[in-house]
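Private note to self, pasted from the team thread so I don't lose it. Backbone tokens:
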């Protein structure tokens, strides 16, 4: 056996000397029967073999034939054997044996079956159902936590992996997680990243730099001396891939990936650009692990492991959440006051709500939401307009339901009209009443088909008839006032409609009165001394009938007025309850348990 020695210093400063190009003695024929190729790399190939001594299948890695006589390749191969064999950890594949086969060095190790993280992320990105169901985010984070622990263990043993990436992490069939391919690992505390050729597929660094583009740290890419924080950077890039199913750096070309690595990436901004919802703690972890300056990263893989475990255990970083809450509050303030800008109003609502979700004790965010809700815009958003239209439809239904008492009051006039032989008045009144009944039934079935014009016109005709029979400025006026209040309560959504209702109602009273004053129509009243005498030109009946009509008229008109007032008040009460509930809900977001207890007690 030939041996050269090299000096090894671990992270604790301990120095030892180990064989650098140790090659095994030929020995007897190997007890391994070939079962086929499992994989091939730049330096060696891996084959499945049957260990006839123990009756188990193992993986045998051999140096490729073309490299067997190359001293540097032989040294690297034996270094990989020694490094992997010295690391005894559940997440690192154990080495079983080492020797020569047909003058070619080999070592055997546990054969692992499963899928790599690269394949899992690819399937998740394609929404493959089986993979999506099996590999939840929590499971992937737990696996990465185990990887961080294994890498930290290797660092304590003085070993850096230097090529951590999704393709080198494997999930076993029974929940195991393995860190693969220690082929370019080194056992120095301070490591020159330019030693040896590249060995990784894909965007693997070419020339003298070892590692894989997109996952190696900036200092490793520049060929500088690296330490454990280079592997931490790679773990952070893997975390980003787990969270977003996309690479941290642009992978379109090697030059684009190199430029992105050396320039650095704003992790939070990139995640936002991808449109992925990620917990703020995980964003902070990924950002810190992939800092451009190594001094700003986690100093060890163990620290990243601990951060992941705290997240998985539910110990969320409150300081990070409060900081993010203030950021969202600042964004909400930038857009306030929004005025009639619907996009700004939505932004204030969204950002202030996010701030409260992150920090429920942030009173300024609650106050901003309250101001937004209590200061409506001049021009309402489309959704609010739709809600108002729906509310109007409800009011139209309510009016249609209360049309019965109003028609009953008006129908009391019909017998008098018939008795007075007032044929035109009788025909017109009955036609209007029939039309109102039809419109009421239509409004109950489909309030959207109801229109203000026909209702206002029909009731104005009734006002005119009442005025012609019993005096426009007195008896007709009360009917017009009740009608105007009903119409305004039901149909008003702005000043213009209120003005139309007012003008038409006034005209229904004033036009007949004007015609009386110029002598076109018979007078319905006259001033006698210090009193006033009313005439009912449409009636020929006596005093008792007039008293009866007067009493019924008083009872019904007041009843209708009360019903309208009750409906208006009920609507206002619903609105007040809704506003108070909104205020209460906002208060619960910013009050502590003691404040809520005092509120409940009160």
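Design output:
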């Amino acid at each position: 056996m030939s041996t050269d020695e090299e000096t090894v210093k671990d992270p604790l400063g301990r120095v030892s000397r180990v064989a650098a190009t140790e090659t095994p003695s030929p020995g007897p024929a190997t007890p391994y029967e070939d079962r086929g190729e499992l994989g091939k790399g730049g330096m060696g190939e891996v084959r499945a073999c049957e260990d006839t001594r123990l009756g188990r299948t193992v993986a045998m890695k051999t140096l490729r034939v073309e490299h067997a006589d190359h001293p540097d390749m032989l040294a690297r191969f034996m270094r990989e054997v020694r490094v992997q064999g010295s690391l005894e950890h559940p997440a690192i594949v154990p080495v079983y044996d080492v020797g020569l086969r047909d003058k070619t060095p080999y070592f055997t190790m546990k054969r692992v079956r499963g899928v790599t993280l690269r394949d899992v992320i690819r399937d998740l990105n394609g929404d493959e159902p089986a993979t999506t169901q099996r590999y939840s985010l929590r499971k992937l984070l737990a696996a990465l936590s185990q990887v961080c622990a294994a890498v930290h263990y290797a660092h304590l043993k003085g070993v850096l992996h230097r090529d951590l990436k999704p393709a080198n992490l494997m999930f076993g069939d029974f929940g195991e997680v393995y860190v693969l391919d220690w082929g370019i690992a080194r056992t120095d505390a301070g490591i020159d990243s330019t030693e040896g050729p590249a060995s990784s597929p894909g965007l693997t660094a070419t020339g003298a730099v070892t590692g894989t583009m997109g996952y190696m740290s900036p200092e490793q890419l520049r060929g500088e001396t690296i330490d454990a924080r280079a592997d931490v950077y790679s773990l952070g890039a893997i975390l980003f891939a787990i969270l977003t199913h996309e690479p941290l750096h642009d992978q379109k070309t090697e030059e684009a990936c190199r430029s992105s690595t050396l320039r650095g990436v704003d992790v939070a901004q990139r995640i936002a650009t991808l449109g992925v919802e990620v917990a703020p703690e995980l964003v902070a972890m990924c950002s810190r692990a992939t800092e451009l300056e190594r001094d700003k990263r986690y100093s060890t893989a163990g620290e990243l492991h601990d951060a992941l475990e705290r997240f998985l255990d539910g110990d969320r970083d409150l300081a990070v959440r409060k900081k993010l809450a203030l950021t969202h509050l600042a964004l909400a303030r930038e857009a306030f006051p929004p005025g009639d800008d619907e996009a700004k109003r939505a932004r204030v609502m969204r950002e202030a709500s996010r701030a409260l979700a992150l920090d429920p004790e942030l009173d300024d965010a609650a106050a901003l939401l309250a101001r937004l809700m209590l200061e409506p815009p001049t021009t309402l958003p489309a959704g609010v307009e739709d809600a108002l239209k729906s509310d109007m439809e409800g009011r139209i239904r309510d009016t249609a339901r209360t049309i019965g008492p109003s028609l009953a009051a008006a129908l009391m006039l019909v017998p008098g009209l018939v008795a007075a032989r007032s044929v035109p008045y009788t025909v017109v009144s009955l036609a209007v009443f029939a039309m109102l009944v039809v419109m009421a039934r239509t409004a109950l079935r489909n309030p959207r088909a109801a229109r203000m014009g026909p209702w206002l016109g029909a009731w104005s005709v009734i006002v005119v008839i009442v005025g012609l029979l019993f005096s426009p400025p007195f008896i007709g006026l009360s009917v017009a006032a009740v009608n105007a209040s009903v119409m305004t309560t039901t149909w008003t959504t702005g000043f213009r409609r209120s003005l139309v209702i007012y003008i038409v109602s006034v005209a229904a009273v004033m036009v007949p009165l004007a015609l009386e004053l110029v002598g076109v129509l018979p007078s319905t009243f006259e001033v006698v001394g210090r009193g006033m005498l009313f005439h009912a030109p449409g009636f020929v009946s006596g005093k008792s009938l007039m008293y009866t009509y007067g009493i019924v008229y008083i009872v019904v008109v007041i009843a209708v007025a009360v019903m309208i007032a009750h409906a208006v008040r009920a609507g206002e009460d619903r609105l007040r309850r809704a506003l108070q509930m909104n205020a209460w809900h906002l208060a619960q977001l910013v009050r502590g348990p003691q404040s809520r207890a005092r509120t409940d007690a009160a």
